[in-house]
Amino acid sequence: MTKIAVVGAGTMGNGIAHVFAQSGFDVSLIDISETVLDRAITTIKKNLGRLIKKGKISEEDKNNTLNRLATFTEIKSGVCGAELVIEAATENENIKLKIFKELDELCNSETILATNTSSISITKIAAVTNRPGKVIGMHFMNPVPMMKLVEIIKGYKTSDEVLKKIVGISKKLNKVPVEVNDVPGFVANRVLIPMINEAVITLNRGVAGVEAIDTVMKLGMAHPMGPLQLADFIGLDVCLAIMNVLHKGLGEDKYAACPLLITMVEAGDLGAKSGTGFYDWKNGYRNLTVASRFK
Ligand SMILES: NC(=O)c1ccc[n+]([C@@H]2O[C@H](COP(=O)([O-])OP(=O)(O)OC[C@H]3O[C@@H](n4cnc5c(N)ncnc54)[C@H](O)[C@@H]3O)[C@@H](O)[C@H]2O)c1
Known about the structure:
The protein has helices at residues 11-22, 34-53, 59-67, 75-78, 93-106, 122-127, 160-172, 188-204, 210-221, 227-234, 236-250, 259-267, and strands at 3-7, 26-30, 69-72, 84-87, 112-115, 135-140, 149-154, 176-181, 279-280, 289-290. By secondary structure, the protein is of the alpha/beta class. It has two domains: 3-181, NAD(P)-binding Rossmann-like Domain (Rossmann fold); 189-294, Orthogonal Bundle (N-(1-d-carboxylethyl)-l-norvaline Dehydrogenase, domain 2). It has an eight-stranded mixed sheet with strand order 3-2-1-4-5-6-7-8, sandwiched between helices. The protein has a two-stranded antiparallel ribbon with strand order 9-10. The protein is globular, with a radius of gyration of 19 Å. The N and C termini lie far apart (52 Å). The relative contact order is 0.09.
């Protein structure tokens, strides 16, 4: 396999494109927004520059990686010749089903269609295509170039051959694949997102402030960052979308999203990507300041 395509160039899409291109694949990066595509390439350049500074890659590696990347605003031209397509578009079931119908029509019948969804059923996504055996979940973690794990989700009809291929490709990217079953949230988000939601409830009920909650979890549980900071990195809209999928799919009240999380998303405070969440991100990622609303 030499050519792949990534649909969606946001937080995850640019990272996925980066690791594939750095591992020698030709990558088409597709988004409906030209601005997002420009931002994605700038981010990839910056992240490759960091790897040079750390002595992990050379200037030549950086240039080769960038030369393997091409951007497109249309799925049709972007997926041409791709042997694997990874969808990393907005976490919204209707958007994903529409994209998979389109991919199924446009791609060669042998092309494997993977989704980076955090929580939506792989089986349901596969069912809108004529190739359910070739549809699989490939759940990368954020930030993709740094994080070793890829959660591999086998849908009801995913073939063993496709599973084996995707496990092999993940290893080629120098990642560690872990196979899990297709239930809402899989493993990663079944455990992580309710913990984040509980942290928001704890804040909302006045048990402690933003810094106190994050410090307890960082120093007390040896987490590299607190759950509220992590929520800001993931994107509060993404966290809310996953909670809603867990709530609907697992049917238990304990998965109901915290009203504060819902309000913040409605207000457009989505975390690092929007500039404000539980923290204020306007002065950069290193200067962690609690958002004025929570001081
Ligand atoms: N953010 C995380 O930490 C994280 C981690 C793991 C998995 N995920 C999953 O990855 C996926 C992407 O999440 P994200 O955080 O990168 O979201 P994002 O909002 O940063 O990016 C999504 C991108 O998809 C694009 N898009 C929407 N519809 C499209 C279409 N029809 N064709 C092409 N592009 C389209 C949007 O323009 C946007 O740039 C979601 O399924 C999410 O659940 C996110």
